[in-house]
Design brief:
Peptide Methionine Sulfoxide Reductase, Chain A; 26% strand; 5 helices; alpha+beta; globular; single chain; two-stranded antiparallel ribbon; 6-stranded mixed sheet
């Protein structure tokens, strides 16, 4: 099994999109990329911890490739808006790919260039080495499923 981690705005929507993908075994929402240990949702929303709201995706690379997972990431958000997705604004909503190994980094960089060319404008998505993943509070996990909502 392989892990991929993405920030693309509010993690509820991102988690729901990835949970529907054949080959994805599990998803978890949480926080990555900041300085505070064990941040809470309120800490992250203060825009002072440096964390992004992220989804950690565990998938079977025999059933879905990292390239396909990246394609989904690009489709579910606007990678040209800095620290904003729809009405959500702040660094916690930034577009970011956290890579877990050098192969993921190379594929992410290549896909970003392809997306930038396709869109014809600057893609602000950052590509950063994955750090500590802090799982969000239970009420955030599978939020749409728990509340009968869809993407």
């Amino acid at each position: 099994m392989t892990i991929a981690t993405f920030g693309a705005g509010c993690f509820w929507h991102v988690e729901a999109a990835f949970s529907e993908v054949k080959g994805v075994l599990s998803t978890a929402v949480g926080y990555m990329g900041g300085d505070m240990k064990n941040p809470s949702y309120e800490d992250v929303c203060s825009d002072e911890t440096g964390h992004a709201e992220v989804v950690q995706v565990e998938y079977d690379p025999k059933k879905v490739s990292y390239s396909s997972v990246l394609d989904i990431f690009w489709k579910i958000h606007d990678p040209t808006t800095l620290n904003r997705q729809g009405p959500d604004e702040g660094t916690q909503y930034r577009s970011v790919i956290f890579y877990h190994d050098e192969q993921q980094k190379k594929e992410a960089e290549k896909s970003k260039l392809v997306m930038q060319k396709k869109l014809g404008e600057k893609v602000v998505t950052s590509i950063v080495k994955a750090g500590m993943f802090y799982k969000a509070e239970e009420y955030h996990q599978k939020y749409f499923r728990k509340h009968g909502k869809t993407c």
